[in-house]
């Protein structure tokens, strides 16, 4: 396991430097579907975890889209422990997106964790990633989560923008977090107002 060295960063400086880079040239609004002549937005169905075959259907997608692939045992750990925190997006019978999360006690709080989020390259910029994340957040709110955290590569602009738009803040930089040596950012979404104790005024 790579040593994970945490270093605090100036959240605003980091945001500014990433946002000032040139725009990502990745396809806007679903280029591949357009090429096929399907101009309309495809009908995407969302579901939670029901059976192992769903897992096998998305394993390839996650392995392809995430820089750090996981073993089937890791997927099973998450999905069978927190099946209600795993959501799939389907176009017809094709699985085109997935989010995998957990929710457990952490330092006196209830902390949600987004372990994996991936959308098929041909189905990007259709708000599938946003919808999957919103479903996970809503379910964690029902589960009384205090906060949700995740890590993503420092240079992963699509993911950073998506999470920014949902209210996540950039909490810290994790040096050489990934096995490929890349740095990560830890993002956090606060779900509850802090409780301040009133001081006695005598
Ligand atoms: C990150 C990812 C899940 C986004 O999925 P998606 O369904 O395309 O995202 P959405 O359509 O919901 O996009 C929401 C917002 O994120 C931002 N965004 C998404 N893709 C972007 C891109 N390529 N460039 C710039 N901003 C992007 C935009 O602000 C977008 O809103 P807009 O389309 O109204 O401008 C997808 O790109 C992916 O699977 N990437 C590879 C795996 C990965 O990085 N996972 C996250 C690891 S934590």
UniProtKB/TrEMBL annotation:
GO CC, alphabetical: NatC complex
Molecular function, one GO term: protein-N-terminal amino-acid acetyltransferase activity
Entry keywords, A to Z: Acyltransferase, Transferase
Keyword Acyltransferase found: yes
Ranges of residues in domain N-acetyltransferase: 44-192
Protein family according to the UniProt entry: Belongs to the acetyltransferase family. MAK3 subfamily.
Protein name: N-alpha-acetyltransferase 30A
Originating organism: Drosophila lebanonensis
